[in-house]
Amino acid sequence: MVPLNRQILLAARPVGFPKETDFRLVDSSLPDLAPGQFLVRSIFLSVDPYMRGRMNDRKSYAEPVGIDEVMVGGVVGEVIESQHEKFGVGKLVVGMFGWQEYAISDGTEVRIVDTGSAPISTALGVLGMPGLTAYCGFLDICQPKEGETVVVSGAAGAVGSVVGQIAKLKGCQVVGVAGSDAKVAHLVDDLGFDAALNYKSTDDYYGKLRELCPEGIDCYFDNVGGPISDAAFALINRFARIAICGQISQYNAQKLEQGPRLLWKLIEKQAKVEGFLVFQYVSQFREAMQQLSEWVDSGKLKYRERIVDGLENAPRAFLEMLQGENIGKQLVKISEAP
Amino acid sequence: MVPLNRQILLAARPVGFPKETDFRLVDSSLPDLAPGQFLVRSIFLSVDPYMRGRMNDRKSYAEPVGIDEVMVGGVVGEVIESQHEKFGVGKLVVGMFGWQEYAISDGTEVRIVDTGSAPISTALGVLGMPGLTAYCGFLDICQPKEGETVVVSGAAGAVGSVVGQIAKLKGCQVVGVAGSDAKVAHLVDDLGFDAALNYKSTDDYYGKLRELCPEGIDCYFDNVGGPISDAAFALINRFARIAICGQISQYNAQKLEQGPRLLWKLIEKQAKVEGFLVFQYVSQFREAMQQLSEWVDSGKLKYRERIVDGLENAPRAFLEMLQGENIGKQLVKISEAP
After folding, report:
1. Secondary structure letter of residue B139 according to DSSP
2. Which of A39, A97, A131, A203 could form a disulfide with A103 if both were Cys (CB 3.0 to 4.6 A apart)?
3. Per-residue pLDDT tens listing for chain A (338 residues)
4. In A, which residues are within 8 Å of B226 by CB distance?
5. What ipTM was reported for this prediction?
6. DSSP per residue over B76-92, as a string?
7. Shortest CB distance from A261 goes to which of B250, B263, B270?
């Protein structure tokens, strides 16, 4: 048996931007396995923007995390004890095991890790939920066509960086919006974006974006919202398609932010805006994963990870991700891979 | 030949809400017909919200009307002289002949009036552009399903009243938003809406709409925008479809109005918002018109018209329409039908 299970609980509901004291590290013991259960040792924990929403009291598309409950999160781990037929000892698995060193599962919504020759950490990134989010949401809603201009906000994040590269693979002109010069350089030099804007270097998002998109914007994939999206909306072309994946600029707002009314623009440009959650595409996951794996294996789809060591540092990693410290996928390493 | 052609010109670009002095009535003479042309005597002129946009200097989806140019507008008229093969003397035609008593045309984008047993005025309303706008936009974007809740703003107008009745024909629960108790009574008592809200009777659009839509909103067809749309967005269900047809609350704004940011809601509800112009559905007009005619003939689709007499009163009719004085289609009668 495991001596102790360290866990990170939600200690308090954040007011505005979360603090480390909104979390609490505790030691707990694990019960014995019941038939049909197995025990997972966490290796990597994913921290993602959606977790900010779960810290609020208000039900959105999912239930909030309760006070003193383990924070939700996707984890890659190894099965180290099992009374389950499918998930035997030694299997590498990915599931919503939460912010903790060990988890007991009955296999519900758990997958065997299948990242081919790529590291198992990619099961939380380019070959996991973020990669599927990018692939399914972008292709379904934006329907990118060769030669079109695609703008991606949050472009250096786990989802945005995949969207931009898929857009390049589809023959589009791709412009990223990100929050540092290092990110801009990464997007253009490493990932092959045609251009990128460091939005922290200017107040004139509209003017800068117009320079980078002389033909206007046909597809906008939005992870950020707020004034960056206002500028993008102002530049859309006729029949533009806008996918709303995230609104990270709004997650810490204490009341609904005001902004310019945008609906008239949608008539003028006969344009479409659609919000989505990756779960709605579950029937396409298998095909999407095959394509993503193929692109990763052949080097057409690149990824970067930022890894913080130790479960105790997960709150800091999460806060840094919310502040945009990460380039690519933000992970927490909890224990060694086998 | 015609002695004189009275015309209404755009005299000045309106600042905010237009005034009668933004228009000017003039007498002009008509040139002789060239081969391939015909002369139309105007019978009914349509005044519509889109005309407000054309009075501005800024190009939107169409060119602005120039100062001292005849105001644009759809007209039903009779051919009274012709050097055109198809459009012979005595034909009743509908086209963009403008705010004037007579017009010379070469037949471009002119249709023979085909309203069956319905009066020719319907070629500007339920069996014209407003009817097609309602039919094509609502069915394509909203994809209404039996039992769903549909909300229509501007519900007593030429487009909204058709949308609501089509929604009823599709088995939906239909709630209209309109600007007077008389309109509310008309929607419910005459057109068969399940409920309607007089938005001028309350400040609590959200609370009132929630009462009328206890199951939430699956489809929202928006002619109005502004705070009414904010309330509707707050009540949408998962996978809601929102068609943006007009934003009449915004047309007289002198700068972009601010409102609550709505994009997050689209993620939470996996919802779609789409703006459209009726012209994009031109390939469906024939089929749409057949269905609309059938419904009108069988009494399933009702309509009302508000008719102001005399070309000289067209500016007043237009301003009254912008202020919501009309129930149903606002028309100006310019001369007698044959």
Report:
1. I
2. A97
3. 567 899 999 999 999 999 999 999 999 999 999 999 999 999 999 999 999 999 999 878 888 999 999 999 999 999 999 999 999 999 999 999 999 999 999 999 999 998 889 999 999 999 999 999 999 999 999 999 999 999 999 999 999 999 999 999 999 999 999 999 999 999 999 999 999 999 999 999 999 999 999 999 999 999 999 999 999 999 999 999 999 999 999 888 878 899 999 999 999 999 999 999 999 999 999 999 999 999 999 999 999 999 999 999 999 999 999 999 999 999 999 999 98
4. 261
5. 0.94
6. EEEEEEE--SSS-TT-E
7. B250
Residue contact A261–B257, C-beta within 8 A: yes
A43-102 residues touching B, CB cutoff 8 A = 60-61
Q: What is the pLDDT of residues B283-303, one digit of tens each?
A: 999 999 999 999 999 999 999
* Four-way CATH pick for A5-125+303-333: 3.90.180.10, 3.30.1490.20, 3.10.129.10, 3.40.250.10: 3.90.180.10
Q: Please give the class, per CATH, of domain A129-279.
A: alpha beta
Q: Which amino acid is at A109?
A: E
Q: Are A136 and A284 in contact (CB under 8 A)?
A: yes
Q: Where are the domains of chain A?
A: 5-125+303-333, 129-279
Which of B225, B226, B258 shows the shortest C-beta gap to A259? B258
Q: Is the dihedral of CA A199, A200, A206, A207 positive or negative?
A: negative
CA-nearest of B208, B222, B213 to B193 is B213
Let me know if the fold of B5-124+305-333 is the same as that of B129-279.
no
Cα A194 to Cα A168: distance, rounded to the nearest angstrom: 9
Cross-strand partners of A10? A23
Q: Which residues of A touch B272 (CB under 8 A)?
A: 272-275
Residue with tokens 């001369």: B335
B-chain residue closest to A225, CA distance:
B263
Q: Do A277 and B270 touch (CB under 8 A)?
A: yes
Cβ of residue B256 closer than 8 Å to a chain A Cβ: yes
Structure tokens at A140: 């379904």
- Chain A CB contacts of B250 under 8 Å are 261, 264
Contacts of A262 in chain B (CB under 8 A): 262
Residue B268, chain A, CB below 8 Å: the answer is yes
**Does the model's pTM come out above 0.90?**
yes
Q: Which residues in B lie closer than 8 A to residue A232 (C-beta atoms)?
A: none
Fold of B5-124+305-333: Quinone Oxidoreductase; Chain A, domain 1 (3.90.180)
Orientation of helix B160-169 relative to helix B285-297, angle to 10°:
80
